[in-house]
């Protein structure tokens, strides 16, 4: 069920998980944790707000870029469609009459929170995979070995 569009900031809880396969688009999932600002009580002590955890899923090119660029602990901003799901009532124990609902952001944009870190951006088209870089290095090594005299 699609509820609305949401933008959320937080820190990545675990390294992004990537999956793809035959006839399936690339998919990346991770979780972010958002804790509201601390505030000072009248007595002078500081109190943290309650932490909210949100699962994030992204697809195709964004999934490939996310798994290459993001890691646990990074501060990010995520925009996307907020979706919800509820497990089947049969799968929940009868002892618990409480309804459970899970929320997830289907990301349309992900960014690094520049209020907390500095970074250098490069277009995704200029990013080479490690395999391509290794192939290029081997080709250069082979070409220079053939061009140099044997003595």
Summarize the structure in words.
This protein has 151 residues and is α+β, with helices and mostly antiparallel strands. 19% of the residues lie in helices and 40% in strands. It has a single domain, classed as OB fold (Dihydrolipoamide Acetyltransferase, E2P), CATH 2.40.50. The chain has helices spanning 60-69, 130-147; strands at 2-12, 17-21, 24-34, 39-40, 46-47, 52-59, 75-85, 102-112. A hairpin with a 2-residue loop joins strand 2 (17-21) and strand 3. The N and C termini lie far apart (72 Å). The mean pLDDT is 82.
Characteristic key phrases:
8 strands; 151 residues; OB fold (Dihydrolipoamide Acetyltransferase, E2P); 19% helix
Please summarize what this structure is.
With 151 residues, the chain is α+β, with helices and mostly antiparallel strands. The chain has one domain (2-37, 47-120): OB fold (Dihydrolipoamide Acetyltransferase, E2P), CATH 2.40.50.
Topology order in helix (H) and strand (E) letters: EEEEEEHEEH
- Tell me the CATH topology: OB fold (Dihydrolipoamide Acetyltransferase, E2P)
Task: Please tally the helical runs, counting DSSP H or I stretches of 4 or more residues.
Answer: 2
Q: In CATH, what is the class?
A: Mainly Beta
């Amino acid at each position: 069920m699609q509820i609305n569009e949401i933008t959320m900031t937080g820190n990545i809880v675990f390294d992004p998980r990537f999956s793809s396969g035959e006839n399936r688009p690339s998919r990346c999932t991770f979780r972010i944790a958002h804790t509201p600002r601390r505030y000072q009580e009248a007595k002078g002590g500081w109190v943290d707000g309650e932490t909210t955890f949100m699962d994030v899923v992204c697809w195709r090119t964004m999934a490939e870029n996310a798994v290459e660029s993001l890691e646990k602990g990074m501060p990010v901003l995520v925009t996307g469609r907020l979706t919800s799901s509820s497990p089947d009532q049969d799968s929940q124990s009868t002892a618990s009459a409480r309804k459970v609902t899970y929320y997830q952001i289907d990301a349309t944009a992900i960014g690094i929170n520049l209020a907390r870190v500095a970074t250098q951006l490069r277009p995704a088209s200029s990013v080479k995979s490690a395999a391509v870089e290794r192939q290029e290095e081997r080709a250069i090594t082979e070409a220079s070995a053939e061009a140099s005299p044997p003595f």
